[in-house]
């Protein structure tokens, strides 16, 4: 086999006559299916057409996983419809060819197996999943605004039935090895130590694939229309076709073209080169950029100490324990920690499902009234009341008890780090690690650097944020940092609109139609009207508070937490009346102040560049991702 010219694959034949194709993409830590990689797989298949093996096993040579997907960098080069179609054809035809070979084939899947990687595995006769925490199988193309065009839309429904397949393809959700076996996606699920032996046995077994139950076959055949219309309704609840066309295209291609996108070139052209796909691919790369901030230091935290078990501190501590840290949580008394511990237990049960794992996460979260954890902590985060004197007293007492290299962080939203650190012997060590509420839901964390801060501390803080699986965004110390600073003028504009006589429902509907996850008035109710008022004082540049806000705050109507704000809240849901017709231009007039503030913050250097600002606003506020962020949206509008 040595005369094959392979850069990324190895082809070996073992004593039993089984060929092993091992993908180890050159120069990369994870495998992706670039043109070069699929080209070499075609060469391998050519070779095996001539020297037919007893069987073929495809596996990864990387520790990082099986295959992460197609090479997303190549998506940015699709500047003509022909290139888009050629990209689809490349994988579709190759995997059809693999699916049709006479000898038995098996994908040995350990670690992530996503997108094109799963489509490769689905084209094999057998799929053997290795049971370990990193094994995740899924078709997340929809999150990039595209569809699984390399056979996923054909083969996944055949394996797991159309409802489960559409659920995976329309949400991008992944399944682990055990679930893969249970749903029929994997033929078996084995522990790592026996995986090679199990792969050999299975591929030579001659065992037929588990057939889909009759009902599933009907749903994947004559009854496709029923499943498709149900799926369309589900999607419509979450995504408007003008914002997110890909999920609708996936349903159409599955239903009308049996998963073959090439039979619908019009859809391929429309989706692959849509502004949504371009922007979502950009968002993907922005996310990679944020992740990279965590790699600038080899700092690794094991123990975290959090002070203040309130709304934020309690949830920060729980999140860190969920992500594997040992956490000590301090407050003024054990009673004050009760609610935080209760929320933590619920978080662990919800996220970890397995009661043993939930139990050990709970064991890692240790109530610590006296702060005994401080000398052992790698990261200390204060999240007590927003009060300079209280924070001064606390951090001055903390500093001498901490390890020299440990990170000292504040979660403050509105106090100046420059003022807080005056009491420290080493003021340059204080950084901001600013989480958003609710901690478990919000992917972004701002890492705040005040002038003269020790860059190693800032880098260590970013590394810690990555360790707990959040996205660090470095920002300079300035009122509201990035996210709150841009939300303030947006919320103000929304409340001014209410003052002008437009109903809260109409204001919210305008922004939901724009693509926001939640309307600004509902957001204010959720955050709390008192907090919005305080933020407004700090961030609205001296503007008068809106009358609608003042009136409600004076009446003690503070929003969700008090049961009444702009809306009446029951069971955690706002009671909304009909929105009626949205006046033309309303959304633009609400979003404009936000965009202008982002421009200002970039100009002032609070965030390093426009792309990072867009990333911060998307991951910190949920700003409509299909737009690519506020500045990308502005540029698009200028062009069109
Ligand atoms: P909170 O009022 O819910 O909790 C504060 C907790 O700190 C209380 O449990 C209190 O008993 C405890 N505490 C006060 N002084 C203490 C001391 N000396 N030692 C030990 N514990 C003490 O406050 P919340 O909302 O969690 O805010 C905490 C910090 O997080 C503030 O700096 C705030 O600006 C910031 N923040 C708040 C956000 C929010 O949405 N609430 C979002 C992001 C940051």
Features:
N-(1-d-carboxylethyl)-l-norvaline Dehydrogenase, domain 2; Rossmann fold; 6-stranded mixed beta sheet; alpha/beta; 8-stranded mixed beta sheet; single chain; 2-enoyl-CoA Hydratase, Chain A, domain 1; 20 strands; binds 1,4-dihydronicotinamide adenine dinucleotide; 3 domains; about 650 residues
Give a quick precis of the structure:
The protein has 640 residues and is an alpha/beta fold. It has 26 helices and 20 strands. The chain folds into 3 domains: 9-273, Alpha-Beta Complex (2-enoyl-CoA Hydratase, Chain A, domain 1); 295-480, Rossmann fold (3-Layer(aba) Sandwich); 484-605, N-(1-d-carboxylethyl)-l-norvaline Dehydrogenase, domain 2, CATH 1.10.1040.50.
What do you see in this structure?
- There is one protein chain.
- By secondary structure, the protein is of the alpha/beta class.
- It folds into 3 domains: about 10-275, 2-enoyl-CoA Hydratase, Chain A, domain 1 (Alpha-Beta Complex), CATH 3.90.226; about 295-480, NAD(P)-binding Rossmann-like Domain (Rossmann fold, 3-Layer(aba) Sandwich); about 485-605, N-(1-d-carboxylethyl)-l-norvaline Dehydrogenase, domain 2.
- The protein is built from 26 helices and 20 strands.
- The strands form 4 sheets. It has an 8-stranded mixed beta sheet, sandwiched between helices. Strands 1-2-3-5-7-10 form a 6-stranded mixed beta sheet, sandwiched between helices. Strands 4-6-8-9 form a 4-stranded mixed beta sheet.
- α2 (about 80-100) crosses α11 and α4 (about 150-160) packs across α5.
- It starts with 8 loop residues before the first strand and ends with a helix.
């Amino acid at each position: 086999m040595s005369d094959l010219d392979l850069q990324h694959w190895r082809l070996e034949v073992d004593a039993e006559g089984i060929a092993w194709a091992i993908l180890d993409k050159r120069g990369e830590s994870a495998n992706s299916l670039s043109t070069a990689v699929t080209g070499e797989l075609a060469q391998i298949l050519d070779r095996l057409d001539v020297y037919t093996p007893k069987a073929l096993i495809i596996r990864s040579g990387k520790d990082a996983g099986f295959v992460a997907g197609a090479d997303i960098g190549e998506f940015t080069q699709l500047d003509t419809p022909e290139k888009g179609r050629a990209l689809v054809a490349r994988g579709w035809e190759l995997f059809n060819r693999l699916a049709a070979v006479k000898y038995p084939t098996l994908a040995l899947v350990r670690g992530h197996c996503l997108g094109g990687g799963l489509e490769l595995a689905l084209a094999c006769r057998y799929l053997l999943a290795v049971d370990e925490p990193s094994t995740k199988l899924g078709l997340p193309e929809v999150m990039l605004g595209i569809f699984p065009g390399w056979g996923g839309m054909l083969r996944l429904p055949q394996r797991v039935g159309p409802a489960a397949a559409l659920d995976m393809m329309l949400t991008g959700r992944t399944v682990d090895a055990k679930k893969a076996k249970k749903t029929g996606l994997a033929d078996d699920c084995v522990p790592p130590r026996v995986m090679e032996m199990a792969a050999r046995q299975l591929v030579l077994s001659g065992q037929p694939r588990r057939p889909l139950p009759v009902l599933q076959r009907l749903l994947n055949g004559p009854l496709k229309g029923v499943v498709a219309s149900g799926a369309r309704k589900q999607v419509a609840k979450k995504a408007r076709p003008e914002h997110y066309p890909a999920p609708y295209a996936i349903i159409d291609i599955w239903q009308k073209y049996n998963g073959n996108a090439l039979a619908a070139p019009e859809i391929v052209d429309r989706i692959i080169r849509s502004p949504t796909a371009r922007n979502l691919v950009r968002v993907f790369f922005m996310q990679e950029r944020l992740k990279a901030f965590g790699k600038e230091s080899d700092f690794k935290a094991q123990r975290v100490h959090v002070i203040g078990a309130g709304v934020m501190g309690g949830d920060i501590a729980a999140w860190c324990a969920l992500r594997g840290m040992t956490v000590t949580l301090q407050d003024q008394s054990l009673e004050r920690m009760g609610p935080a511990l209760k929320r933590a237990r619920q978080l662990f049960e919800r996220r970890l499902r397995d009661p043993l794992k939930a139990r050990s996460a709970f064991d890692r979260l240790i109530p610590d009234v006296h702060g005994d954890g401080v000398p052992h902590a790698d990261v200390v985060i204060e999240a007590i009341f927003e009060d300079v004197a209280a924070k001064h007293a606390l951090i001055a007492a903390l500093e001498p008890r901490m390890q020299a290299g440990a990170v000292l962080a504040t979660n403050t939203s509105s106090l100046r780090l420059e003022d807080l650190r005056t009491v420290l012997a080493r003021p340059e060590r204080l950084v901001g690690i600013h989480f958003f509420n609710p901690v478990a839901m919000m992917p972004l964390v701002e890492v705040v650097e005040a002038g003269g801060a020790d860059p190693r501390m800032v880098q260590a803080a970013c590394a810690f944020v990555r360790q707990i699986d959040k996205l660090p965004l470095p920002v300079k110390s300035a009122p509201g940092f990035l996210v709150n600073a841009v939300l303030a003028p947006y919320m103000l504009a929304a409340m001014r609109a209410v003052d002008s006589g437009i109903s809260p429902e109409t204001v919210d509907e305008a922004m939901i139609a724009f693509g926001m996850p939640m309307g600004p008035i509902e957001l204010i109710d959720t955050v709390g009207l008192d907090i919005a008022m305080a933020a407004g004082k700090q961030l609205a540049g001296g503007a008068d508070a809106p009358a609608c806000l003042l009136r409600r705050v004076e009446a003690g109507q503070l929003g969700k937490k008090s049961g009444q704000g702009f809306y009446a809240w029951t069971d955690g849901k706002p009671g909304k009346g009909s929105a009626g017709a949205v006046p033309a231009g309303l959304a633009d007039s609400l979003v404009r102040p936000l965009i202008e503030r982002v421009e200002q913050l970039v100009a002032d250097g609070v965030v390093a560049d426009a792309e990072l600002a867009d990333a911060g606003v998307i991951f910190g506020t949920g700003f409509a991702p299909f737009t690519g962020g506020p500045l990308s949206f502005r540029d698009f509008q200028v062009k069109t």
